[in-house]
Amino acid sequence: YQRVVAMASVDPSARAIDLPALAAAVRAFRSYTYGACESTPVIGHPHITYGAAARLLAEQSDGALCAVGFLGMEHFSGGAGTTFAGVFRNGEYLCKAAIHAEPQFADAYYALADVIKPSGPLPVTTRLFDGREFSRVGLYKEAILINPTSAIAYNNLGVNLHGEGSTIRIGDRLYTATDLYLEAIHYEPTYALAYNNLAHAIGRDDVVLRDGRRFDATGLLLEAIRADPTYATTYDSLGTRVRDGSVTLPDGSVMTGRQLLVRALELNPKSFPTHINLADSLGLAELITVRHERLNRHELYARAARLPGYEDISWQLLVSRIYTADHARRRGTSRRALLSRARTKYGCEDNDPSGS
Predict the structure, then answer these.
(1) Collapsed DSSP state (helix, strand, coil) of residue 286
(2) Contact 254, 247 (CB under 8 A)
(3) pLDDT of 8 higher than 60
(4) What is the pTM of this model?
(5) DSSP per position, 249-268
(6) Among residues 51, 60, 100, which one has the least CA distance to residue 78?
(7) What is the DSSP letter of 168?
(8) Spatial CA neighbour of 135 closest among 157, 152, 103, 154
(9) Measured between alpha carbons, how far is residue 254 from residues 217, 230, 246, 250 in Å?
């Protein structure tokens, strides 16, 4: 990664910026970072941020370089979009603009598929500037047809395969979700997310990777940690699988299931599933230390309910998980009174004004 980014370095006395080198830096930085990072200065160009570099490529170049710029703008805005040429453009528009600038840019197809996530049960389709219409699955397939080594496209298609049946045809071959994850790992052997997804896909079975190694689900999760020791989701998955047991990590340390869940929450404090999984592992009177805080299961449930994006289920969560039916009966407390108590103690807003 550093070698690719260093390509953007130029002689400070030079008047012109090497746009191809700048595009290589933007593309590498987009591939190795997550979320908004547009304010980071480009190596070799201390006065240019990655966000500004992406905008410069979109404005000052055409073809493949322009496409990298548009896709960089989408990525560095966190998918929310940004103002371009005086007009606000959302993430979907920026991905389509990248495809329009370079129709054979595989990254833009799977980025567009990620942007148009469905908000309901119906499949989502989108129309490109040239009139072609694609579903999310179709965009992932197109990315793979253009670039058969695209690990991200294989992985993301595997995640979405359940909406299209048990298999999917790409070219002259049928793939299951497991096949797609295996392809992703083959082309990117340190792809932690693909190992994690493959572990969920195989359940209790074993799987043989393309390099001949055999793993069960626990072994795949350990490989994910070996590939990326900072990826929180893997610790959550492994902690849920280990439960009351323990496992030896690639660095030689031994951790229990609960310790793995704590590690996951420390790495990603905004993870809703990890809050729930850790709370479920505690007894009613037990406390757990997370980032120097002593928390009980009620407080973990309440924090999960307050996370952005989960407000719509906060009351169901607080009532059904914090105060169990047996606990409520012992106290002789009504459901409405429990709601009032939860609001007072945990500060959640009432999203059901009817009280039903």
Answers:
(1) coil
(2) yes
(3) no
(4) 0.79
(5) -TTS-EEEHHHHHHHHHHH-
(6) 51
(7) E
(8) 157
(9) 18, 17, 7, 9
